[in-house]
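#random but structural
TW: two for the price of one
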Amino acid sequence: MSAPFPIGPAMTDGWPMTSIIAGASTAPMAHAIDLARLFGGQGDSWSDALVSETRRQLGGCVSAVETGLRLTLEQDARIATALGALPPTLVWPIVLSNPGMISPLLLTHMRMRAGLALLLRQVGHADLSEDMDDAGGAIHFSSDPDSDIRHAAIELAMAEGRWAMVGAEDQPIRPDVPAEQFFELIWMTAAALGAAVMRSGLVPSAVAMAAVQEAARAALARHDERQGALAVADRLVWRLGARADAPDLLGQALVARRHLLFAALAARHLRVETGRLAQALVAGPIGHVAAICHTLGGSAPDYRHLLLALRPVRPTLSDARILALAADYGAMDDAQADGIIAELRAPEELSAKMALLTPKAD
């Protein structure tokens, strides 16, 4: 069977940039460049490891969603017959041939998730019942006397373990993403499956369209974003209450390399969504990292330590650059930092549009 959405011989030499730019009317150029880095070449801010891991996280979630939709669709004998004539893993190859299906916000989320997964992998999760405890037991919440805190800590360790799991691009990963990203994953996957079933000629188009819509809506109704790693980290911090405001806890989380917990704690202090703050740390302009550290009250040595912690996912952070950034850290004033934090508090859609009008620096 031919590929559902062939690229065509004229595009093979320049793929993916040629195929992406061909659809530039539906994809902003900055997003097209990011997609080109992800699917065939890296830019300065994308390490090879980050490219591979972003593909792994996105492809794994797509494959898991495809499996769920297939199980629902196959309850109709006609659809089951059509799907049986198709490859068992269909959607990820289609996405690989049509990267423009991936929206900017979905790519942003997957890049953040991939960056945190790489950072988590620096220490591993051999025992998911216990926290990574390089800070002398100060953040050992999985044995906390408060059962709610204890359960949230164990949930977070398990969620981190899922993110840090190694596998092939199309090996399913639980799509424990926020509702907005799950919405995109569902409709992207449903579109690919629906188009493939229609192209098979075994099912009338109207029947296929109705079936994929029903399956997609059922999956959306079942999704519980509270089980995602971001939500679990927020829940742990909320359970901690006033304890989350302890002056040394942020530093202890960073020393213990609990980057997701660090992001959730910092987000509480700064009144920013945890996902937005994690994205700023992993892939935002380096000035945003400085602003976060400044607003949290961090010193130049604190900033240097934060940059060192982020170096596995930020290839431009050489030793020399970290020293230079730390030396210039004191030049940032409260007004500059407050402006950046205000931007992180704004709706993500607004920030994304404004970013297209602002030069991007790392």
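TW: number two ↓
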Amino acid sequence: MTDHGERPPHLEHRGFDWPPGGVNPFDRDFPEAGRLYWAHERPSLLFPVSRQPERTDLDRAIPMGYTTLLLMERVAVVTLGERGRREWKHQAQHGSVGPFQQYQLIVPPDGPAEKYLMVGAIWPFQWTHRDAVRLGQMTGRVVLVCRVLSYESWH
């Protein structure tokens, strides 16, 4: 699919409606990179680094149960291939974070029965970006690029 054929994505947030005051991670207008949690195949809302949610709230907002909880930093939103990229500065590291590749690509659901799709991408960032562009072209959707900061068993 070419850049001109990209479908408008279904960008209604279908993840965890938390933390209060957070924004949709696909919102290109939020001025900073921000952070989000990922568990049960869906993201939390995006929050500024300076407003890290309380841990007790996290336990109530994202139910535990046979999953892994990731804390991730938003790095880029790629739309319309190369021409629609919005990128935020980040501290790249070499390698993986435990069992997870450093960068993760997230595609939003396109219909009511679909779930978010998250796939690992390799570093360095220019290769991750290339993969995000290709994934966006193949799916016709916006791609959120995140960097894994930490993970833990969540059950």
